[in-house]
Amino acid sequence: MDLFLFITGFVAMLIAFGLLILRVFTKGPKKKLLILLAAGFALFVTGALIGGANMTPEEKAVAEERRLAKAEEKEAKLEAERLEKEKTIEVERKELEKKELAERERAEEETAEALRNEQEEKAVAEKKKSDPLAIKEVEGKAGTEKNEGSTGIIPIFDIKDVAHKTESEVTDLLGKPFDTEEGDFSLDVDSPIYTLNYYKDGKIEVMFIEDKAVNVILNLSEEEYFSGEDAKGNLEYLNLTVTDLEKPLIEGQTSVGAYNIDGFHRVEVGKWRNVPGGFVTVFTDKKYKY
User: Can you give the C-alpha Rg of the chain in angstroms?
Assistant: First the structure.
């Protein structure tokens, strides 16, 4: 920097500017003052420029170091901003991947659950075709509501699914009978013809008259049968309402029963003579009671 020219130009500009302000109020000539102001500005600028060109090597080195330092600082700031932006983008990318993975896993689980349910439904349908009674037991275990006084046993089948049904409907439920009998229901001349089908190796007997199931017998093993005061528990094997049964009228009476249980004419529970186990018989109508 040429200090002389710089200061001279600066002073000239101050003097010219001050006098110009005075001339504004006195209304004197301003031309010379404007020339002085221009000359002072020219000296000021020239002094500043000559000063930059006349810097010593040491001053130039210092100036260059400052310039480089500022450049490095700016570059470091830009690099830090770039890294911070990349970090933010990476975090957002990982969060998105995590969310997408969770959604895929949930979708896969839902698909797998739907497939399992479909397979279970197919298995149930196949089982129902081959062994409808067994499926009925499974459905009962899944959620049969118990009556008051329930023994907690699972119904073998629901009597309402058999009583008054056609032979074809009962066969669809219990499967094909392994044996069948036919005959006159009574000794009357106009006695109807009955068909007695044995299902499940004789565990269930169903009598049909005019293609309607009128009487149903469920045979129970010794382990299944409830005897004595607990005999009413056998009603649950047919999903009947647990009801107090009649007291035996005579000593040695093997069966007891009750009328109008769940709308059926009479239900009897008893033990076979000289044979382990017992039975539950449902008479749907008074005229078919024997």
Answer: 55
What is the distance between the alpha carbons of residues 193 and 186, in angstroms, rounded to a whole number? 9
Domain boundaries, position 22: 3-54
CA 255, CA 287: separation in Å to the nearest integer?
20
Is residue 259 situated within a structural domain?
yes
- Quote the CA–CA distance of 177 and 204 in Å, as a whole number: 9
Reported as a single tens digit per residue, the pLDDT across 175-233 is 999 999 999 999 888 899 999 999 999 999 999 999 999 999 999 999 999 988 899 99
Q: Please count the structural domains in the chain.
A: 2
For 251-268, the DSSP string reads: TT--EEEEEEETTEEEEE
Domain membership of residue 279 (yes or no) is yes
Report pLDDT digits (tens) over 59-101: 778 878 888 888 899 999 999 999 999 999 999 999 999 999 9
Whether residue 261 is contained in a domain is answered as: yes
